[in-house]
Predict the 3D structure of the following.
Amino acid sequence: MTASRLVIPDLAGKVALITGGSTGIGAAVARGFAGQGAQVAIGYHSSEKQAQALAGEIKAKGGEALAVKGDVADPKACARIVAETAARFGRLDGLINNAGLMLGRVNSLEASEEHIEAVIDLNARSVISMTRAALPWLERQGGFVINTTSIAARNGGAGGAMLYAAAKGFVSTITRGHAKELIGKKIRVNAVSPGVITTPFHERYSTPEGLEAIRLTIPAARLGTAEECVGAYLFLASEALSGYIVGQIIEVNGGQLMP
């Protein structure tokens, strides 16, 4: 993409790593950053076909992209994901901690210890592991971390989603904590909190009837799309647009929650 077409010029040439970047919101965010001239690393675990296809799509449009496999629930894999990204692009300017799944609707008090651990490791612990791994690169020139939390972090979830909601509550809190810890290194940490977005996440975990019941509670009278979340991430990544915004959570939910 040529500079004359860029909407947010200060993102051009930056390197952004997006975990959970192969589908849904993560894929839309990867396209969004690539569209602003950024180089993107698409983190994935099991969706290799989608990740490679997305990287190919970005390259076909003249962008730079890399698909990086790894399970962010494993701290060693997090270190390797960052290392592969930095080795390919020579730097890292931003990290989007977007990977997360419910791993099934299970009552929190009936869940096995293994299930609890898996939900926490994937959705919460991964944010610390990825941020720790990225830190030596981000602090070289300053940069950004954007975490993906959820409306569930505020409403506690429902229908077997309480453990996921609690993990996302951790993400919201650690966003504020990391914002305080890292701003002295010129690294801004913020978060985006999507509401109910039509992605493979809800295709996997929600019924059409359940989604319709939720839709009726949303002032915008519809569910959101992954593309409608992208602007918040681009805004928070841009020093020019949000340089004095630190430790904030942008709610993207059609008015379903107005904190």
About this structure: The chain has a mean pLDDT of 94. The longest strand covers residues 187-194.
